[in-house]
Amino acid sequence: MVGAVALDSVETPSEKRENLLGGSASYFSYAASYFTSVRLVSAVGDDWPHEHTELLQSRNIDTAGLKVIPGAKTFRWSGKYHADMNDRDTLDVQLNAMEQFDPVLPEEYRRCRFLFLANDPPGLQIKVLQQCPGATLTVADTMDLYINNQHDELLELLGRIDGLVLNDSEAKLLTGDDNLVRAGHAIRELGPRFVVIKKGEHGAMFFSRHETYVLPAFPTPNVVDPTGAGDSFAGGMMGYLAEQGNFEPKTLKKAMAYGTLAASFTVEDFSLDRLEKIEREDIEQRMRKYRQMLTF
Amino acid sequence: MVGAVALDSVETPSEKRENLLGGSASYFSYAASYFTSVRLVSAVGDDWPHEHTELLQSRNIDTAGLKVIPGAKTFRWSGKYHADMNDRDTLDVQLNAMEQFDPVLPEEYRRCRFLFLANDPPGLQIKVLQQCPGATLTVADTMDLYINNQHDELLELLGRIDGLVLNDSEAKLLTGDDNLVRAGHAIRELGPRFVVIKKGEHGAMFFSRHETYVLPAFPTPNVVDPTGAGDSFAGGMMGYLAEQGNFEPKTLKKAMAYGTLAASFTVEDFSLDRLEKIEREDIEQRMRKYRQMLTF
Protein backbone atom coordinates (compact mmCIF):
# COMPACT_ATOMS: atom_id res chain seq x y z
CA MET A 1 0.00 0.00 0.00
CA VAL A 2 1.12 3.52 -0.81
CA GLY A 3 -0.18 6.50 1.14
CA ALA A 4 0.38 9.14 3.75
CA VAL A 5 1.65 8.76 7.27
CA ALA A 6 0.71 11.75 9.39
CA LEU A 7 0.63 13.39 12.77
CA ASP A 8 -2.98 14.42 13.45
CA SER A 9 -4.66 16.92 15.73
CA VAL A 10 -8.26 15.91 16.29
CA GLU A 11 -11.05 17.79 18.03
CA THR A 12 -14.28 15.95 18.81
CA PRO A 13 -17.29 17.41 20.64
CA SER A 14 -15.88 16.04 23.88
CA GLU A 15 -12.09 16.02 23.56
CA LYS A 16 -9.06 17.48 21.82
CA ARG A 17 -5.96 15.41 21.10
CA GLU A 18 -2.69 16.38 19.41
CA ASN A 19 0.22 14.67 17.66
CA LEU A 20 -1.65 11.45 17.11
CA LEU A 21 -0.33 8.76 14.81
CA GLY A 22 -2.54 9.07 11.73
CA GLY A 23 -2.64 9.12 7.94
CA SER A 24 -4.19 6.74 5.43
CA ALA A 25 -1.14 4.47 5.37
CA SER A 26 -1.10 3.96 9.14
CA TYR A 27 -4.78 3.10 9.41
CA PHE A 28 -4.84 0.99 6.25
CA SER A 29 -1.73 -1.01 7.13
CA TYR A 30 -2.72 -1.64 10.71
CA ALA A 31 -6.23 -2.84 9.76
CA ALA A 32 -4.88 -5.00 6.91
CA SER A 33 -2.28 -6.56 9.19
CA TYR A 34 -4.95 -8.69 10.90
CA PHE A 35 -5.32 -10.57 7.63
CA THR A 36 -2.05 -10.44 5.71
CA SER A 37 1.50 -9.13 5.72
CA VAL A 38 1.65 -5.51 4.54
CA ARG A 39 4.34 -3.53 2.77
CA LEU A 40 4.02 0.17 3.40
CA VAL A 41 5.29 2.97 1.16
CA SER A 42 5.27 6.50 2.56
CA ALA A 43 7.44 9.44 3.56
CA VAL A 44 7.98 11.26 6.85
CA GLY A 45 10.22 14.01 8.17
CA ASP A 46 12.98 13.67 10.72
CA ASP A 47 10.53 14.72 13.45
CA TRP A 48 8.82 11.34 13.05
CA PRO A 49 8.75 9.49 16.40
CA HIS A 50 10.47 6.16 15.93
CA GLU A 51 8.01 4.43 18.29
CA HIS A 52 5.31 4.86 15.62
CA THR A 53 7.43 2.86 13.19
CA GLU A 54 7.95 0.26 15.90
CA LEU A 55 4.21 0.06 16.51
CA LEU A 56 3.63 -0.73 12.83
CA GLN A 57 6.50 -3.22 12.79
CA SER A 58 5.03 -4.93 15.84
CA ARG A 59 2.14 -6.03 13.61
CA ASN A 60 4.54 -7.35 11.01
CA ILE A 61 4.11 -4.35 8.70
CA ASP A 62 7.15 -3.99 6.45
CA THR A 63 8.36 -0.38 6.78
CA ALA A 64 11.30 -0.67 4.36
CA GLY A 65 9.28 1.64 2.09
CA LEU A 66 8.86 4.32 4.78
CA LYS A 67 11.34 6.98 3.73
CA VAL A 68 12.63 9.58 6.17
CA ILE A 69 13.34 12.84 4.31
CA PRO A 70 16.11 14.74 6.10
CA GLY A 71 15.25 18.32 6.95
CA ALA A 72 11.55 17.80 6.21
CA LYS A 73 8.71 17.62 8.66
CA THR A 74 6.04 14.92 8.79
CA PHE A 75 2.64 15.51 7.12
CA ARG A 76 0.26 17.19 9.59
CA TRP A 77 -3.52 17.16 9.50
CA SER A 78 -5.84 18.93 11.88
CA GLY A 79 -9.61 18.51 11.93
CA LYS A 80 -12.69 19.17 14.00
CA TYR A 81 -15.77 16.93 14.08
CA HIS A 82 -19.36 18.18 14.09
CA ALA A 83 -21.73 17.09 16.83
CA ASP A 84 -23.04 14.12 14.81
CA MET A 85 -19.46 12.83 14.25
CA ASN A 86 -20.27 12.07 10.60
CA ASP A 87 -19.03 15.41 9.24
CA ARG A 88 -15.83 17.27 9.95
CA ASP A 89 -13.98 20.44 9.02
CA THR A 90 -10.34 20.24 8.05
CA LEU A 91 -8.69 23.03 10.02
CA ASP A 92 -5.17 22.73 8.67
CA VAL A 93 -3.10 20.61 6.30
CA GLN A 94 0.68 20.76 6.05
CA LEU A 95 1.87 18.32 3.42
CA ASN A 96 5.55 18.68 4.44
CA ALA A 97 7.35 15.42 3.61
CA MET A 98 4.42 14.22 1.48
CA GLU A 99 4.97 17.17 -0.84
CA GLN A 100 8.27 15.63 -1.94
CA PHE A 101 6.82 12.13 -1.97
CA ASP A 102 7.90 10.38 -5.16
CA PRO A 103 7.63 6.72 -4.36
CA VAL A 104 10.30 4.46 -5.80
CA LEU A 105 9.32 1.00 -4.65
CA PRO A 106 11.93 -1.41 -3.23
CA GLU A 107 12.57 -4.30 -5.62
CA GLU A 108 10.73 -6.92 -3.56
CA TYR A 109 7.68 -4.59 -3.26
CA ARG A 110 7.28 -4.55 -7.04
CA ARG A 111 6.24 -8.18 -7.08
CA CYS A 112 3.14 -7.51 -4.93
CA ARG A 113 -0.12 -9.05 -6.12
CA PHE A 114 -2.53 -6.85 -4.15
CA LEU A 115 -1.88 -3.12 -4.43
CA PHE A 116 -3.74 -0.32 -2.67
CA LEU A 117 -3.20 3.32 -3.57
CA ALA A 118 -4.49 5.75 -0.94
CA ASN A 119 -5.75 9.18 -1.95
CA ASP A 120 -2.53 10.67 -3.31
CA PRO A 121 -2.53 12.70 -6.54
CA PRO A 122 -3.65 10.46 -9.43
CA GLY A 123 -0.40 11.09 -11.35
CA LEU A 124 1.54 9.67 -8.43
CA GLN A 125 -0.86 6.73 -8.16
CA ILE A 126 -0.26 5.95 -11.84
CA LYS A 127 3.53 6.06 -11.32
CA VAL A 128 3.18 3.44 -8.60
CA LEU A 129 0.92 1.27 -10.76
CA GLN A 130 3.62 1.25 -13.44
CA GLN A 131 6.11 -0.10 -10.93
CA CYS A 132 3.87 -3.10 -10.12
CA PRO A 133 3.04 -4.62 -13.51
CA GLY A 134 2.35 -8.03 -11.94
CA ALA A 135 -0.37 -6.87 -9.50
CA THR A 136 -3.54 -8.93 -9.94
CA LEU A 137 -5.75 -6.57 -7.94
CA THR A 138 -5.22 -2.81 -7.90
CA VAL A 139 -7.55 -0.62 -5.85
CA ALA A 140 -7.33 3.14 -5.35
CA ASP A 141 -8.93 5.80 -3.18
CA THR A 142 -9.31 9.42 -4.24
CA MET A 143 -10.60 12.73 -2.85
CA ASP A 144 -12.45 15.94 -3.72
CA LEU A 145 -9.22 17.87 -4.36
CA TYR A 146 -8.26 15.62 -7.29
CA ILE A 147 -11.81 15.31 -8.59
CA ASN A 148 -11.86 19.10 -8.88
CA ASN A 149 -8.29 19.89 -9.91
CA GLN A 150 -6.78 16.81 -11.55
CA HIS A 151 -9.76 15.47 -13.39
CA ASP A 152 -7.95 14.23 -16.50
CA GLU A 153 -5.29 12.39 -14.51
CA LEU A 154 -8.02 10.87 -12.35
CA LEU A 155 -9.89 9.64 -15.42
CA GLU A 156 -6.67 8.09 -16.69
CA LEU A 157 -6.22 6.35 -13.34
CA LEU A 158 -9.80 5.02 -13.46
CA GLY A 159 -9.01 3.32 -16.76
CA ARG A 160 -6.06 1.50 -15.20
CA ILE A 161 -7.33 0.18 -11.84
CA ASP A 162 -9.57 -2.73 -10.85
CA GLY A 163 -11.41 -1.02 -8.02
CA LEU A 164 -12.10 2.47 -6.70
CA VAL A 165 -13.03 3.30 -3.10
CA LEU A 166 -14.41 6.78 -2.34
CA ASN A 167 -16.77 8.69 -0.03
CA ASP A 168 -20.42 9.38 -0.82
CA SER A 169 -19.82 13.13 -1.20
CA GLU A 170 -16.92 12.42 -3.57
CA ALA A 171 -19.04 10.05 -5.65
CA LYS A 172 -21.69 12.76 -6.01
CA LEU A 173 -19.03 15.33 -6.91
CA LEU A 174 -17.41 13.07 -9.51
CA THR A 175 -20.67 12.19 -11.26
CA GLY A 176 -22.93 15.16 -10.55
CA ASP A 177 -25.59 12.63 -9.51
CA ASP A 178 -27.08 12.72 -6.00
CA ASN A 179 -28.46 9.20 -6.25
CA LEU A 180 -25.65 6.98 -5.00
CA VAL A 181 -26.88 3.89 -6.83
CA ARG A 182 -26.69 5.66 -10.15
CA ALA A 183 -23.44 7.42 -9.15
CA GLY A 184 -21.75 4.13 -8.24
CA HIS A 185 -22.52 2.56 -11.58
CA ALA A 186 -21.58 5.74 -13.47
CA ILE A 187 -18.12 5.65 -11.87
CA ARG A 188 -17.81 1.95 -12.69
CA GLU A 189 -18.41 2.84 -16.33
CA LEU A 190 -15.39 5.14 -16.20
CA GLY A 191 -13.16 2.08 -15.88
CA PRO A 192 -12.93 0.15 -12.61
CA ARG A 193 -14.45 -3.32 -12.43
CA PHE A 194 -15.90 -2.44 -9.06
CA VAL A 195 -16.63 0.68 -7.03
CA VAL A 196 -17.11 1.01 -3.28
CA ILE A 197 -18.87 4.09 -1.90
CA LYS A 198 -18.21 4.67 1.79
CA LYS A 199 -21.06 6.35 3.68
CA GLY A 200 -19.46 6.74 7.12
CA GLU A 201 -21.89 5.77 9.89
CA HIS A 202 -24.33 4.59 7.21
CA GLY A 203 -22.16 1.81 5.85
CA ALA A 204 -20.81 1.12 2.36
CA MET A 205 -22.17 0.33 -1.10
CA PHE A 206 -20.69 -2.01 -3.69
CA PHE A 207 -21.10 -1.83 -7.46
CA SER A 208 -19.95 -4.24 -10.13
CA ARG A 209 -21.42 -5.05 -13.53
CA HIS A 210 -23.77 -7.63 -12.03
CA GLU A 211 -24.09 -6.54 -8.41
CA THR A 212 -25.39 -3.61 -6.37
CA TYR A 213 -25.49 -3.90 -2.62
CA VAL A 214 -25.26 -1.99 0.64
CA LEU A 215 -23.87 -3.19 3.93
CA PRO A 216 -24.70 -1.10 7.01
CA ALA A 217 -22.05 0.03 9.47
CA PHE A 218 -21.77 -2.05 12.63
CA PRO A 219 -23.81 -0.08 15.19
CA THR A 220 -21.45 0.95 17.96
CA PRO A 221 -22.64 3.17 20.83
CA ASN A 222 -19.07 4.25 21.40
CA VAL A 223 -17.92 6.58 18.60
CA VAL A 224 -14.93 8.45 20.00
CA ASP A 225 -13.01 9.53 16.87
CA PRO A 226 -14.05 8.66 13.29
CA THR A 227 -10.63 9.63 11.84
CA GLY A 228 -9.21 6.78 9.77
CA ALA A 229 -12.49 4.84 9.54
CA GLY A 230 -12.44 4.90 5.74
CA ASP A 231 -8.78 3.88 5.54
CA SER A 232 -9.34 1.10 8.08
CA PHE A 233 -12.29 -0.03 5.98
CA ALA A 234 -10.05 -0.24 2.91
CA GLY A 235 -7.36 -2.00 4.96
CA GLY A 236 -9.74 -4.64 6.29
CA MET A 237 -11.17 -5.15 2.81
CA MET A 238 -7.87 -5.43 0.95
CA GLY A 239 -6.26 -7.40 3.77
CA TYR A 240 -8.98 -10.05 3.60
CA LEU A 241 -8.80 -10.21 -0.21
CA ALA A 242 -5.02 -10.69 -0.05
CA GLU A 243 -5.43 -13.38 2.60
CA GLN A 244 -7.95 -15.22 0.45
CA GLY A 245 -5.83 -14.69 -2.66
CA ASN A 246 -8.83 -14.03 -4.91
CA PHE A 247 -11.46 -11.43 -5.62
CA GLU A 248 -14.48 -13.48 -6.60
CA PRO A 249 -17.85 -11.78 -5.93
CA LYS A 250 -18.33 -13.89 -2.77
CA THR A 251 -14.89 -12.99 -1.44
CA LEU A 252 -15.44 -9.32 -2.24
CA LYS A 253 -18.65 -9.23 -0.23
CA LYS A 254 -16.99 -10.83 2.78
CA ALA A 255 -14.14 -8.36 2.34
CA MET A 256 -16.67 -5.50 2.46
CA ALA A 257 -17.94 -6.92 5.76
CA TYR A 258 -14.42 -7.21 7.22
CA GLY A 259 -13.71 -3.64 6.13
CA THR A 260 -16.90 -2.53 7.87
CA LEU A 261 -15.81 -4.20 11.10
CA ALA A 262 -12.25 -2.88 10.97
CA ALA A 263 -13.73 0.63 10.68
CA SER A 264 -16.13 -0.04 13.57
CA PHE A 265 -13.21 -0.78 15.90
CA THR A 266 -11.14 2.19 14.70
CA VAL A 267 -13.83 4.76 15.60
CA GLU A 268 -14.06 3.46 19.18
CA ASP A 269 -10.95 5.38 20.23
CA PHE A 270 -8.42 7.95 18.98
CA SER A 271 -5.70 7.05 16.48
CA LEU A 272 -4.90 3.29 16.47
CA ASP A 273 -5.63 2.97 20.19
CA ARG A 274 -8.63 0.63 19.80
CA LEU A 275 -7.07 -1.49 17.05
CA GLU A 276 -3.99 -1.91 19.23
CA LYS A 277 -6.13 -3.67 21.81
CA ILE A 278 -7.75 -6.26 19.55
CA GLU A 279 -6.79 -9.55 17.99
CA ARG A 280 -8.16 -11.29 14.89
CA GLU A 281 -10.51 -13.23 17.16
CA ASP A 282 -12.19 -9.97 18.28
CA ILE A 283 -12.91 -9.20 14.63
CA GLU A 284 -14.31 -12.71 14.13
CA GLN A 285 -16.50 -12.35 17.20
CA ARG A 286 -17.92 -9.09 15.92
CA MET A 287 -18.37 -10.75 12.51
CA ARG A 288 -20.63 -13.37 14.10
CA LYS A 289 -22.76 -10.60 15.65
CA TYR A 290 -22.80 -8.70 12.35
CA ARG A 291 -23.94 -11.74 10.36
CA GLN A 292 -26.62 -12.47 12.93
CA MET A 293 -27.78 -8.86 12.73
CA LEU A 294 -28.32 -9.24 8.98
CA THR A 295 -30.04 -12.61 9.14
CA PHE A 296 -33.81 -12.80 9.25
CA MET B 1 -54.44 2.73 12.18
CA VAL B 2 -55.20 6.33 13.04
CA GLY B 3 -53.59 9.17 11.13
CA ALA B 4 -53.88 11.93 8.58
CA VAL B 5 -55.17 11.74 5.06
CA ALA B 6 -53.93 14.65 2.98
CA LEU B 7 -53.67 16.33 -0.36
CA ASP B 8 -49.98 16.99 -1.05
CA SER B 9 -48.04 19.33 -3.27
CA VAL B 10 -44.56 17.97 -3.86
CA GLU B 11 -41.61 19.56 -5.57
CA THR B 12 -38.58 17.41 -6.41
CA PRO B 13 -35.42 18.60 -8.20
CA SER B 14 -36.98 17.44 -11.48
CA GLU B 15 -40.75 17.80 -11.15
CA LYS B 16 -43.61 19.55 -9.36
CA ARG B 17 -46.92 17.80 -8.68
CA GLU B 18 -50.06 19.08 -6.95
CA ASN B 19 -53.12 17.64 -5.23
CA LEU B 20 -51.61 14.23 -4.74
CA LEU B 21 -53.22 11.66 -2.48
CA GLY B 22 -50.99 11.68 0.60
CA GLY B 23 -50.89 11.66 4.38
CA SER B 24 -49.57 9.09 6.83
CA ALA B 25 -52.85 7.15 6.88
CA SER B 26 -52.94 6.70 3.10
CA TYR B 27 -49.36 5.46 2.81
CA PHE B 28 -49.53 3.31 5.92
CA SER B 29 -52.83 1.65 5.01
CA TYR B 30 -51.91 0.98 1.42
CA ALA B 31 -48.56 -0.58 2.35
CA ALA B 32 -50.11 -2.63 5.17
CA SER B 33 -52.87 -3.89 2.87
CA TYR B 34 -50.42 -6.25 1.13
CA PHE B 35 -50.26 -8.21 4.36
CA THR B 36 -53.50 -7.78 6.27
CA SER B 37 -56.90 -6.09 6.29
CA VAL B 38 -56.67 -2.52 7.54
CA ARG B 39 -59.13 -0.30 9.34
CA LEU B 40 -58.42 3.37 8.78
CA VAL B 41 -59.41 6.24 11.06
CA SER B 42 -59.01 9.78 9.73
CA ALA B 43 -60.87 12.95 8.81
CA VAL B 44 -61.20 14.86 5.53
CA GLY B 45 -63.17 17.86 4.27
CA ASP B 46 -65.92 17.85 1.72
CA ASP B 47 -63.37 18.70 -1.00
CA TRP B 48 -62.03 15.16 -0.67
CA PRO B 49 -62.16 13.36 -4.03
CA HIS B 50 -64.21 10.21 -3.63
CA GLU B 51 -61.97 8.28 -6.01
CA HIS B 52 -59.22 8.37 -3.35
CA THR B 53 -61.54 6.55 -0.95
CA GLU B 54 -62.34 4.07 -3.70
CA LEU B 55 -58.63 3.50 -4.33
CA LEU B 56 -58.13 2.58 -0.66
CA GLN B 57 -61.25 0.40 -0.66
CA SER B 58 -59.98 -1.40 -3.76
CA ARG B 59 -57.22 -2.82 -1.53
CA ASN B 60 -59.73 -3.94 1.04
CA ILE B 61 -58.99 -1.03 3.41
CA ASP B 62 -61.98 -0.40 5.67
CA THR B 63 -62.80 3.33 5.40
CA ALA B 64 -65.77 3.30 7.81
CA GLY B 65 -63.50 5.35 10.14
CA LEU B 66 -62.80 8.01 7.49
CA LYS B 67 -65.01 10.89 8.60
CA VAL B 68 -66.01 13.67 6.21
CA ILE B 69 -66.35 16.95 8.13
CA PRO B 70 -68.91 19.17 6.38
CA GLY B 71 -67.70 22.67 5.59
CA ALA B 72 -64.08 21.73 6.31
CA LYS B 73 -61.25 21.29 3.84
CA THR B 74 -58.89 18.35 3.67
CA PHE B 75 -55.46 18.56 5.32
CA ARG B 76 -52.91 20.01 2.89
CA TRP B 77 -49.16 19.58 2.97
CA SER B 78 -46.67 21.13 0.61
CA GLY B 79 -42.97 20.34 0.52
CA LYS B 80 -39.83 20.70 -1.53
CA TYR B 81 -37.00 18.17 -1.66
CA HIS B 82 -33.30 19.04 -1.65
CA ALA B 83 -31.04 17.75 -4.39
CA ASP B 84 -30.06 14.63 -2.44
CA MET B 85 -33.75 13.70 -1.91
CA ASN B 86 -33.04 12.80 1.73
CA ASP B 87 -33.93 16.24 3.15
CA ARG B 88 -36.91 18.43 2.47
CA ASP B 89 -38.42 21.76 3.45
CA THR B 90 -42.06 21.91 4.44
CA LEU B 91 -43.41 24.90 2.53
CA ASP B 92 -46.94 24.94 3.88
CA VAL B 93 -49.21 23.00 6.22
CA GLN B 94 -52.96 23.56 6.49
CA LEU B 95 -54.38 21.19 9.08
CA ASN B 96 -57.98 21.96 8.06
CA ALA B 97 -60.15 18.90 8.86
CA MET B 98 -57.35 17.36 10.96
CA GLU B 99 -57.59 20.32 13.33
CA GLN B 100 -61.03 19.11 14.41
CA PHE B 101 -59.95 15.47 14.38
CA ASP B 102 -61.21 13.78 17.54
CA PRO B 103 -61.33 10.11 16.68
CA VAL B 104 -64.22 8.12 18.08
CA LEU B 105 -63.62 4.60 16.86
CA PRO B 106 -66.45 2.50 15.41
CA GLU B 107 -67.40 -0.36 17.76
CA GLU B 108 -65.85 -3.13 15.66
CA TYR B 109 -62.59 -1.11 15.38
CA ARG B 110 -62.17 -1.17 19.16
CA ARG B 111 -61.52 -4.89 19.16
CA CYS B 112 -58.36 -4.51 17.01
CA ARG B 113 -55.28 -6.40 18.14
CA PHE B 114 -52.65 -4.41 16.20
CA LEU B 115 -52.91 -0.66 16.54
CA PHE B 116 -50.77 1.97 14.83
CA LEU B 117 -50.92 5.65 15.80
CA ALA B 118 -49.40 7.96 13.19
CA ASN B 119 -47.76 11.22 14.27
CA ASP B 120 -50.82 13.02 15.66
CA PRO B 121 -50.61 14.98 18.95
CA PRO B 122 -49.74 12.58 21.78
CA GLY B 123 -52.91 13.52 23.72
CA LEU B 124 -54.99 12.34 20.78
CA GLN B 125 -52.88 9.18 20.45
CA ILE B 126 -53.56 8.39 24.12
CA LYS B 127 -57.31 8.90 23.61
CA VAL B 128 -57.23 6.31 20.84
CA LEU B 129 -55.22 3.89 22.96
CA GLN B 130 -57.90 4.11 25.65
CA GLN B 131 -60.53 3.05 23.13
CA CYS B 132 -58.63 -0.14 22.27
CA PRO B 133 -57.92 -1.80 25.62
CA GLY B 134 -57.60 -5.22 24.00
CA ALA B 135 -54.80 -4.31 21.57
CA THR B 136 -51.86 -6.71 21.96
CA LEU B 137 -49.41 -4.55 20.00
CA THR B 138 -49.55 -0.74 20.02
CA VAL B 139 -47.02 1.23 18.00
CA ALA B 140 -46.84 5.00 17.57
CA ASP B 141 -44.97 7.50 15.43
CA THR B 142 -44.21 11.05 16.56
CA MET B 143 -42.57 14.22 15.22
CA ASP B 144 -40.39 17.23 16.14
CA LEU B 145 -43.42 19.47 16.81
CA TYR B 146 -44.61 17.29 19.71
CA ILE B 147 -41.11 16.57 20.99
CA ASN B 148 -40.66 20.34 21.34
CA ASN B 149 -44.13 21.48 22.41
CA GLN B 150 -45.96 18.53 24.00
CA HIS B 151 -43.12 16.86 25.80
CA ASP B 152 -45.05 15.77 28.90
CA GLU B 153 -47.90 14.24 26.88
CA LEU B 154 -45.33 12.50 24.69
CA LEU B 155 -43.59 11.02 27.74
CA GLU B 156 -46.96 9.79 29.00
CA LEU B 157 -47.59 8.17 25.61
CA LEU B 158 -44.18 6.47 25.71
CA GLY B 159 -45.14 4.82 28.98
CA ARG B 160 -48.25 3.32 27.39
CA ILE B 161 -47.14 1.94 24.01
CA ASP B 162 -45.22 -1.17 22.98
CA GLY B 163 -43.23 0.39 20.14
CA LEU B 164 -42.15 3.81 18.89
CA VAL B 165 -41.15 4.61 15.31
CA LEU B 166 -39.41 7.93 14.60
CA ASN B 167 -36.87 9.63 12.33
CA ASP B 168 -33.17 9.91 13.11
CA SER B 169 -33.37 13.71 13.56
CA GLU B 170 -36.34 13.27 15.92
CA ALA B 171 -34.47 10.65 17.96
CA LYS B 172 -31.55 13.07 18.35
CA LEU B 173 -33.93 15.88 19.32
CA LEU B 174 -35.79 13.76 21.87
CA THR B 175 -32.63 12.51 23.60
CA GLY B 176 -30.07 15.26 22.94
CA ASP B 177 -27.69 12.48 21.85
CA ASP B 178 -26.21 12.48 18.35
CA ASN B 179 -25.19 8.83 18.53
CA LEU B 180 -28.23 6.93 17.25
CA VAL B 181 -27.32 3.68 19.01
CA ARG B 182 -27.34 5.41 22.39
CA ALA B 183 -30.38 7.52 21.41
CA GLY B 184 -32.41 4.44 20.45
CA HIS B 185 -31.80 2.74 23.77
CA ALA B 186 -32.40 5.97 25.70
CA ILE B 187 -35.85 6.27 24.11
CA ARG B 188 -36.55 2.61 24.89
CA GLU B 189 -35.85 3.37 28.53
CA LEU B 190 -38.62 5.97 28.44
CA GLY B 191 -41.16 3.18 28.08
CA PRO B 192 -41.57 1.33 24.77
CA ARG B 193 -40.44 -2.27 24.54
CA PHE B 194 -38.89 -1.50 21.17
CA VAL B 195 -37.84 1.57 19.20
CA VAL B 196 -37.34 1.90 15.45
CA ILE B 197 -35.26 4.80 14.11
CA LYS B 198 -35.86 5.53 10.43
CA LYS B 199 -32.85 6.92 8.55
CA GLY B 200 -34.41 7.53 5.13
CA GLU B 201 -32.09 6.36 2.33
CA HIS B 202 -29.77 4.89 4.98
CA GLY B 203 -32.24 2.33 6.32
CA ALA B 204 -33.65 1.72 9.78
CA MET B 205 -32.39 0.73 13.23
CA PHE B 206 -34.09 -1.49 15.79
CA PHE B 207 -33.66 -1.41 19.57
CA SER B 208 -35.07 -3.73 22.20
CA ARG B 209 -33.68 -4.75 25.57
CA HIS B 210 -31.61 -7.52 24.03
CA GLU B 211 -31.19 -6.41 20.43
CA THR B 212 -29.58 -3.60 18.45
CA TYR B 213 -29.51 -3.83 14.69
CA VAL B 214 -29.55 -1.85 11.46
CA LEU B 215 -31.05 -2.85 8.15
CA PRO B 216 -30.01 -0.81 5.10
CA ALA B 217 -32.53 0.63 2.66
CA PHE B 218 -33.01 -1.36 -0.53
CA PRO B 219 -30.77 0.42 -3.07
CA THR B 220 -33.01 1.74 -5.82
CA PRO B 221 -31.60 3.87 -8.65
CA ASN B 222 -35.04 5.33 -9.19
CA VAL B 223 -35.94 7.71 -6.34
CA VAL B 224 -38.74 9.90 -7.73
CA ASP B 225 -40.51 11.13 -4.56
CA PRO B 226 -39.58 10.10 -1.00
CA THR B 227 -42.87 11.39 0.47
CA GLY B 228 -44.58 8.68 2.49
CA ALA B 229 -41.54 6.41 2.69
CA GLY B 230 -41.57 6.41 6.49
CA ASP B 231 -45.32 5.77 6.67
CA SER B 232 -45.04 2.99 4.10
CA PHE B 233 -42.22 1.52 6.18
CA ALA B 234 -44.49 1.49 9.24
CA GLY B 235 -47.35 0.06 7.17
CA GLY B 236 -45.26 -2.78 5.77
CA MET B 237 -43.88 -3.50 9.23
CA MET B 238 -47.20 -3.48 11.11
CA GLY B 239 -49.01 -5.22 8.26
CA TYR B 240 -46.58 -8.12 8.37
CA LEU B 241 -46.77 -8.35 12.19
CA ALA B 242 -50.57 -8.42 12.03
CA GLU B 243 -50.45 -11.09 9.33
CA GLN B 244 -48.13 -13.24 11.45
CA GLY B 245 -50.18 -12.53 14.57
CA ASN B 246 -47.15 -12.23 16.83
CA PHE B 247 -44.23 -9.93 17.58
CA GLU B 248 -41.46 -12.30 18.52
CA PRO B 249 -37.93 -10.94 17.87
CA LYS B 250 -37.67 -13.04 14.68
CA THR B 251 -41.00 -11.76 13.37
CA LEU B 252 -40.08 -8.19 14.24
CA LYS B 253 -36.86 -8.40 12.21
CA LYS B 254 -38.68 -9.77 9.18
CA ALA B 255 -41.26 -7.02 9.66
CA MET B 256 -38.45 -4.43 9.59
CA ALA B 257 -37.34 -5.92 6.27
CA TYR B 258 -40.87 -5.83 4.80
CA GLY B 259 -41.21 -2.22 5.94
CA THR B 260 -37.91 -1.41 4.22
CA LEU B 261 -39.16 -2.91 0.96
CA ALA B 262 -42.57 -1.23 1.11
CA ALA B 263 -40.72 2.10 1.47
CA SER B 264 -38.41 1.24 -1.42
CA PHE B 265 -41.40 0.84 -3.76
CA THR B 266 -43.14 3.99 -2.52
CA VAL B 267 -40.20 6.28 -3.37
CA GLU B 268 -40.09 5.03 -6.96
CA ASP B 269 -43.01 7.28 -7.99
CA PHE B 270 -45.24 10.08 -6.69
CA SER B 271 -48.04 9.41 -4.20
CA LEU B 272 -49.23 5.77 -4.25
CA ASP B 273 -48.54 5.42 -7.97
CA ARG B 274 -45.80 2.80 -7.63
CA LEU B 275 -47.56 0.78 -4.92
CA GLU B 276 -50.67 0.73 -7.08
CA LYS B 277 -48.73 -1.20 -9.72
CA ILE B 278 -47.39 -3.97 -7.51
CA GLU B 279 -48.70 -7.19 -5.98
CA ARG B 280 -47.51 -9.09 -2.93
CA GLU B 281 -45.37 -11.22 -5.22
CA ASP B 282 -43.37 -8.15 -6.29
CA ILE B 283 -42.56 -7.53 -2.64
CA GLU B 284 -41.54 -11.17 -2.19
CA GLN B 285 -39.34 -10.99 -5.26
CA ARG B 286 -37.57 -7.90 -3.92
CA MET B 287 -37.30 -9.66 -0.54
CA ARG B 288 -35.33 -12.48 -2.18
CA LYS B 289 -32.94 -9.92 -3.69
CA TYR B 290 -32.68 -8.09 -0.37
CA ARG B 291 -31.89 -11.25 1.56
CA GLN B 292 -29.28 -12.22 -1.00
CA MET B 293 -27.75 -8.76 -0.75
CA LEU B 294 -27.26 -9.24 3.00
CA THR B 295 -25.89 -12.77 2.78
CA PHE B 296 -22.14 -13.35 2.66
Relative strand content of chain A: 15-25%
Contiguous runs where pLDDT drops below 50 for at least 5 residues of chain A: none
CATH architecture of chain A: 3-Layer(aba) Sandwich
Taking all Cα atoms into account, the compactness measure Rg of chain A is 18 Å
Oligomer state of the chains in this structure: homodimer
Q: Termini of chain A, distance in Å?
A: 37 Å
The 3D shape of chain A can be described as globular
CATH topology of chain A: UDP-N-acetylmuramoyl-L-alanine:D-glutamate ligase
Beta-strand segment tally of chain A: 12
Give the mean pLDDT of chain A: 97
Structural domains of chain A: how many: 1
Structural class of chain A: alpha/beta
Highest CATH level, the class of chain A:
Alpha Beta
Enumerate how many helices of chain A there are, as a single number: 10
Give a quick account of the main beta sheet of chain A: strands, pairing sense, barrel closure.
6 strands, mixed
Main β-sheet, spatial strand arrangement of chain A: 7-8-9-10-11-12
Order of helices and strands of chain A: EEHEHEEEEHEHHEHHEEEHHH
Helix content of chain A: 25-40%
Greatest contact pair?
Answer: A-B, 36 and 36 residues
Name the CATH superfamily classification of chain A.
Ribokinase
